[in-house]
Structures are given as C-alpha cells and as structure tokens.
Amino acid sequence: MQFRDLKAQYKALKLQMDKAISEVLSSSAYILGEQVSILEKRLAGYVGVKNCISCANGTDALILSLMALNVGKGDAVFAPNFTFFATVNCAMLIGASPVLVDIDKNTFNMSPEHLEQVILQTIKEGALKPKVIITVDLFGQCADYDAINEIAQKYNLLIVEDAAQGFGGSINGKKACAYGDIATTSFFPAKPLGCYGDGGAMFTNDDDLDAKLRSLRSQGRSNLDKYDNRDMGLNSRLDTLQAAILSVKLDAFIENELEDINKVADKYTSLLSHYVKTPFVPKGYVSSWAQYTILLKSQSERDALKELLKQNGIPSMVYYPRGMHQQTAIKKYGFDKGEFPNTEYVVDRCLSLPMHPYLSDDDIYKVANCIIDFFK
Ligand SMILES: *Cc1c(COP(=O)(O)O)cnc(C)c1O
Predict the structure, then answer these.
(1) How many CB atoms lie within 10 A of CB 220?
(2) Strands 75-80 and 97-101, how do they pair?
(3) 49-81 pLDDT, tens per residue?
(4) Angle, alpha carbons 210-212-214 (nearest 5°)
C-alpha cells in the first residue's frame, strides 16, 4: 500500500499525460511556453482570483510574496507553530523575524486567540514592527479566515496565505488561495495538486502586486525593458513541462479527484471515529485532504499503533513530530517550551494515514481494521 499513490494516478491519466508531455518536448518552448500562461489563467479562474503567477516551488512563492510586500529586517511575521518548515524559513531568509502562534487543537490551524495575544505582546515589547500574518491551510483545510481577517484589519497587518497543502479546499464555496493579499501554493508531487517535480504559484487580486511578482520571479527585471532590472529578484519559473502535466492533473482534480478523496475521508471517519480522534471539519468547510491526520491519547499509544500498521504493511507518517519552536534553526529567536501547549500536545499524538483519491475500499478497510484491532 502506498501512502500517496502517484503511480495509480499516472496509470489513470497516462493517455492524456503522455500526449501533453510529448507536445512540450516537440515544441521546444521549455521555459514560459504557452502552457504556462494557459495554466495560470485556468488556476486563477478555478480559485476565483484575478491573477495567478506560477513559479519554481512553494517555498519561492512564499519568499517572492514577502519580497513583493516589502517585508524585511525589523518586521514581525506571525506564523503558526505547527507547519512545514518553509512557512517560517521564508521569513527568516529575507531577514524578518518569525513570531510563532499556537494552533487550535481541533483544526490544527493557527489559533486566532493566540494570534491576537502575540500581536499585542509584540506591540508592547516594541522591538519589531508587526507586518504580516502567514496563515497556513494545513492538511487541506483552510484556516479560520473570519477571525483572522478581523484581527489583520484591527492591527493593520497583511496576510500571506500559505495554501501549499490547501489547494482545492474552501469555506462556504470561497476557495483556498483566495484569502490572502497574496496566496501561495506548491505543486510538489504529494500535494493536493502536484506535478512531476517542483512547482508553485502565487495568487492576488491586486494588479500592482501581480506585476511586481512577475518581475521578481525573473531577476527583478522591468516588465517594459527586459534588460533593465529594477529590483533584486529570483530566477523562479514553472517549467513548461510541469505546466502541461498540471493541466492534465487539474482536469482530473476538478473532474473527480477532489470528490473521491472526500469520499475516502468520509469512510475513514465513519469507521474510526469511535476509536481515535478523527479530523474535525468545521461547518461550511471543504478539505482537500493533503493529509488525513488522527490523534491518539499519548505519544506511546501513537508510536505503538504506527509500529503495528508498519508490521501490517501499512505506511503512516508523523506530520509533524515537532513544532517550529523545537527546530534548531529557530532556537535563536528564544521561544520557550510551554508557550505552545496545543502544538506540543498535537506533535506527540498525531498520525497521518494513507490518503489519496485512488485509495481502494479494500485498503481503507485494511487500515481501519488494523486500527480497530489495535484497540481490541
Ligand atoms: C510543501 C509546503 C511548502 C513548500 O512547498 P515546496 O514546493 O516544497 O517548496 C510550504 N508550506 C507548506 C505548509 C508546505 O506544506
């Protein structure tokens, strides 16, 4: 059994996929070919945002977004403590200071209450200028944007939505990647919408930010004169080949994958909810299930279940085994153990199960029965 079965997906899409790839090979427009701009328009339309700017990966998308918003030294970047390292790494790379926020134990996303607390604390200390909130739509589920938008307005902060795992999710029909001043996503193969290598994108309704992001992804060059560079930027583009691959995958994502993965989630939940804490999806929210993550009662119970699954040939992952405040690269910012009780609770107890739209009923039952046996 695969944790995320990309081979099964390729088998299902092989005909269209091989055709799309060979068209790029024979076109020789390998960089910024027409497939890239066509994909950008389709992605913008799907998400419901005016502009989509593709780039080389989800980490660059975050770095470029912070650059476009002029975030830098002396600025506080508020980010959830329970996430993939890139969320916080990008802030540190451009010289800003991360300020970590604890999570909500139910949704695993940023706690709005704790966010407001750390903003007030940052203002009181006076060393950093509160500038931007990076929200993360963790495991496929949007953050609490009603509450977070209100806080952003109250304290005059920008929002960068890190939807690397959130693409396809929504709240009352409004899709992930439509929430921040800029939103970012990743097309790393195992993400909800993945390519066959690295890829990423940014979304914004603001035309000035769109122009700035397009310039910054190409060395900061002027959009009028390509040999006049106005800013320092990156070389961060989506390959034409990956754009062609994504266009086939986006068809499948819209056609059936998002629906199918939600069916898998519903089956897991109905089989498992008496035994473990299954994922909580608030009313009106749709998840795209980058992960299906359960909580056990203790670290030793989690580790024992993981071992039993492994013995039965079932892969499972601990996303994530530590909070950002427990990362060596972040120690110098002086966050203390105990400041983030919910993150510390979840990192010890979380376990992500095999999850993808091609997971068969047999496999779902195999996973569920193994977990049920564990408790018997
Ligand atoms: C994967 C991921 C990223 C980075 O994306 P890459 O394409 O791997 O650079 C950023 N944030 C989160 C939350 C992620 O899961």
Answers:
(1) 16
(2) parallel
(3) 999 999 999 999 999 999 999 999 999 999 999
(4) 70
Query: pLDDT band at residue 205, thresholds of 50, 70 and 90?
Result: very high
Q: How far apart are CA 186 and CA 195, in angstroms?
A: 9
By percentage, how much of the chain surpasses pLDDT 70? 100
Nearest atom within ligand 1 for CA of residue 187: 7
DSSP string, 62-97: HHHHHHHTT--TTEEEEEESSS-THHHHHHHHTT-E
What value does the CA radius of gyration of the chain take, rounded to a whole number of Å?
A: 21
48: CA distance to ligand 1 center in Å? 22
What is the DSSP-derived secondary structure letter of residue 224?
Answer: S
Measured CA to CA, the distance from residue 201 to residue 161 in angstroms comes to: 12
Ligand 1 and 357: CB distance under 6 A: no
pTM of the complete model: 0.98
For atom 2 of ligand 1, the residue with the nearest CA is 164
Average of per-residue pLDDT across 256-277: 98
Residue 109, ligand 1, Cβ within 6 A: no
Residue appearing with tokens 């989509």: 52
Using alpha carbons, list the distances in angstroms from residue 293 to 12, 160, 341.
Answer: 26, 24, 19
CA–CA dist 284, 174 (Å, integer): 10
Q: What are the pLDDT digits (tens) for 107-140?
A: 999 999 999 999 999 999 999 999 999 999 999 9
Query: Which residue matches tokens 């068209």?
Result: 23
What is each CA distance from 362 to 263, 305, 367, in whole angstroms? 14, 20, 9
Q: Is 257 in the pocket of ligand 1 (CB under 6 A)?
A: no
Look at residue 181 in the predicted model and tell me its pLDDT: 98
- Provide the pLDDT for residue 227: 86
Distance CA 210, CA 53 (A): 7
Helical (H) or strand (E) element with 149: helix 145-154
Ligand 1 in reach of 186 Cβ (< 6 A): yes
